[in-house]
Amino acid sequence: MTAQPAPRSQARNLAGFVLIALIWGSTWLVIKDQISVVPAPWSVTWRFGLAAIAMFTLAAVRREPLMLSGEGLRLAALFGLFQFNLNFQFVYASERYLTSGLVAVFFALMLVPNAVMARVFLGARFGGRFVAGSVVALAGIALLLTHEYRAAPAGIDVLGGVVLVLGAVMCASIGNVLQGTALARRQPVVTLLAWGLAFGAMGDALYAFALHGAPVLDPRPQYLWGVAYLAVIGTVATFPIYTALIREWGPGKAAYNGVAVPVVAMLLSTLFEGFRWTGLAVSGALLAMAGLLIALGGRK
User: Is 278 helix (H, G, I), strand (E, B) or coil?
Assistant: First the structure.
């Protein structure tokens, strides 16, 4: 265990917030390609298995300890189960039924369970700006959900996909709140993430083998580069920053990253997938961004 680091500057936190939104907004395009000839559970396994190796390497480079205490390992196992096992298994499964944009928008709803559980379990308090901004952002999210629902191809199991993605949102939220506990704050960030990824990848492998049998890997360069991008850029480069935001801002405000991510995803979809903006989409994006600015604004 190590002492808590000094608080980071607000400018550094905001820069990290923007970087995460840009990277995670791009991952939805890559995830869609990962659901190909490879069963989704094995794609998740490859992603987090590689990410665990890279995160342990990062810990070694930064000279952080590679081991945790017994209670630290138990926390990492629980955190890894919810964040890197259940959460992403639900996410990848839901993308068989829903558009990537719709899944991304649903994750913007995570600010609600994050804020509620942070209040109940961590004693976090939120001011009027946060509540007002959340109401505005949720109105924008509702418009984006309506747009994406209307744009979804006919005949898909929308309801089944919604159940899966809501399960993912709840699991991710539990993982976020676990990172905000006093025990988690006493652990080295990268080491905790490395063990969480390792435990999560083991759970993913067991689930994939039970459901689909022997491992499957797509040899296409596009698929392999996608795994590498999601593991190194989408996970190792972002989760330490996001964990720092949870520790600095709390799970509720950190979850506002999920409000920015679908807007970034839609902008990228405009460039690479021919996404067409409608009045609903534009109004929803503007309301979501306005809510984010209200909630995270102020003199601080």
Answer: coil
Its pTM stands at 0.84
Which residue, among 166, 152, 142, has the nearest Cα to 285 in the 3D structure?
A: 142
- Which residues in the chain come in under a pLDDT of 70? 1-8, 101, 152-158, 252, 273-275, 296-300
Report the domain count for the chain: 1
Q: pLDDT tens for residues 192-222?
A: 999 999 999 999 999 999 999 999 999 999 9
Return the C-alpha torsion angle 228, 232, 233, 236, nearest 10: 160
Domain extent at residue 264? 10-296
Buried b (16+ CB within 10 A) or exposed e, 172-208: bbbbbbbbbeeebbbbbbbbbbbbbbbbbbbbbbebb
Torsion 283-286-290-292 (CA) sign: positive
Amino acid at 106: F
Of 12, 53, 266, the closest CA to residue 144 belongs to 266
- Determine the Cα–Cα distance for residues 250 and 182; give it in Å rounded to an integer: 12
Residue 3 resides in a domain:
no
On whether the CB atoms of residues 164 and 93 are closer than 8 A, the answer is yes
Report d(CA 131, CA 109) in Å as an integer.
14
Angle of the 40-61 helix axis to the 10-34 helix axis, nearest 10: 150
Q: How big is the CA angle at 241 (ends 240 and 247), to the nearest 5 degrees? A: 90
What local confidence, expressed as pLDDT, does residue 153 receive? Answer: 66
Q: pLDDT for 67-114, tens place per residue?
A: 999 999 999 999 999 999 999 999 888 877 777 767 777 787 787 787
Query: CB count, 10 Å around CB of 128?
Result: 8
Closest CA to 12 of 245, 168, 171: 245
Give the three-class secondary structure for 152.
coil
CA distance 174 to 83: 8
In a domain, 4, yes or no: no
